[in-house]
Design brief:
Blueprint lengths: L17 H11 L8 H14 L3 E5 L2 H11 L7 E4 L5 H9 L3 E4 L11 H10 L4 E5 L10 H9 L4 E5 L7 E2 L2 E2 L6 E5 L12 E5 L2 H11 L7 H5 L20 H32 L5 E2 L12 E5 L8 H10 L15 H7 L7 H9 E4 L7 H16 L21
Parallel strand pairs: 2-3, 2-4, 4-5, 5-8
Antiparallel strand pairs: 1-9, 6-7, 8-9, 10-11, 11-12
Helix pairs in contact: 1-9, 2-9, 3-4, 3-7, 5-6, 9-13
The structure holds pyridoxal-5'-phosphate.
Length: about 400
């Protein structure tokens, strides 16, 4: 591989076209920029898309998770089961409520929370478990059948973290509509984006009313209601709420992205299939199995240390030297200083999370990734892996076994 190679393939890239540009211009010229007509339309279209009774647009997935947990009535010092194998947001919102995350380890192949361990944590009942936040990692839906069975008998709420899981179905229903509340993220690298933004879906009208009020400072009516007609300026603050309403500019982008969501999913599926076809059978890599219950937000591979002399970090550096952007999902939360210090976790407390996190690499996957770049990524991964096999496994004649050329 030449060091003068200039190809740069980003890890993620939003697919934004002229329809999104036109939608933003329409709003900019409309005289109304904050939450209004566009946001109401986006909520209605989203709610129809996922077939939920209600949808609320918010400034981020994090904001949505916070509102969901607050509405579900979680109180200080109660416990919320979730996975350590997730982004900061999933657990920090539990701490916003002065409740505690009760981490449960994951399954090695799916990276999703292990239902048997969830059942055990609920059964042991050492703590008051008020809710569970399953995270559909990479867009691969958790075993929701088991999770619903475990939680139903104990009246434990399920808030689905669908930051990676849109638009994808499980037994005919969209992720995000399988528990009590579902929260989606429209962050820039997500499967649809508004730059920053998110959406909450639920069938529960009481929660919706609470989240609506708490989304806008705990005020009983939103600005759109107050200024869009005369003599409606009066409002009351009924709670110390938050400032989580989505702007019409962002919603206008979201409406266009929503119309493209199924096409994006097909493109992601196509890429995932090619990765799987081309990378299967390599002993130095673990790759995900193909399933339709997957939004393919991420394509996560794992380096198998017994068949590769490079550490995961050096493998990433080599990909980067070849112009390939990657990411790591995730460093588990229990080894992050805050959680480690607050709860006294040891790295081995969640051994599957720890082992997966030390070996995983997320490769580029997005609708605008063209096939030439995709094949280049695949060839580069293969070349790096094959050139760094332990001697006992090396293919005769490969770089790992060939004697150094004489000068
Ligand atoms: C698993 C997970 N949950 C929640 C979030 C939070 O979403 P947002 O960035 O929209 O706040 C993210 C964002 O990356 C995420 O990956």
């Amino acid at each position: 591989m030449s060091s003068s190679f200039k190809k740069i393939i980003p890890f993620a890239k939003p697919s934004i076209g002229t329809d999104e540009e036109d939608a933003v211009l329409r709003v900019l010229r409309s005289g109304w920029l904050t939450t209004g007509r566009e946001t109401l339309a986006f909520e209605k279209e989203f709610q129809e898309f996922v077939s939920s009774k209600h949808a609320l647009a918010v400034t981020s997935g994090t904001a949505g998770l916070h509102l969901a947990l607050e509405a579900s009535g979680v109180e200080a010092d109660q416990f919320v089961i979730t996975t350590p194998y997730t982004f900061a947001a999933t657990a920090e919102i539990i701490r916003y409520m002065h409740a505690h995350p009760l981490f449960v380890d994951i399954l090695p192949d799916s990276y999703n929370i292990d239902p048997e361990l969830v059942a055990k944590a609920v059964r042991e009942n050492k703590h008051h478990v008020a809710a569970i936040i399953p995270v559909h990692i990479a867009g691969n839906i958790c075993d929701m059948k088991s999770l619903c069975e475990i939680t139903a008998e104990k009246n434990i709420h399920i808030i689905e973290d669908c930051a990676h899981a849109f638009p994808v179905k499980y037994n005919g229903k969209y992720a995000g509509t399988l528990g009590q509340i579902g929260v989606y993220s429209f962050y820039a690298n997500k499967t649809i984006t508004t730059g920053e933004g998110g959406m909450i879906a639920t069938d529960n009208t009481e929660y919706t009313q609470r989240m609506k009020v708490m989304r806008t400072h705990g005020i009983d009516r939103e600005a759109w209601d107050r200024y869009s007609a005369q003599n409606k300026w009066y409002y009351e603050i009924i709670e110390p709420g938050f400032k989580y309403n989505l702007s019409d500019i962002a919603s206008a982008i979201g409406r266009v992205q929503l119309t493209r969501a199924n096409d994006f999913l097909e493109k992601r599926r196509h890429i995932a299939n090619i990765y799987i076809r081309e990378l299967s059978g390599l002993d130095f890599l673990h790759i995900p199995a193909y399933t339709d219950d997957h939004a393919w937000h991420l394509f996560m591979i794992r380096i198998q240390p017994e068949y590769c002399t490079l550490s995961r970090n050096v493998f990433i550096e080599k990909l980067s030297e070849n112009g390939i952007g990657t990411s790591v999902h995730y460093t588990p939360l229990h080894i992050m200083p805050y959680y480690k210090n607050k709860y006294g976790y040891k790295p081995d407390d969640f051994p599957v999370s720890l082992a997966n996190s030390q070996a995983c690499i997320s490769l580029p996957i997005y609708p605008d990734l063209d096939e030439e770049d995709l094949m280049y990524i695949i060839q580069t991964v293969k070349k790096i892996g094959q050139a760094h096999r332990p001697v006992h496994t090396a293919v005769p004649g490969s770089a790992a076994t060939s004697p150094k050329p004489e000068k």
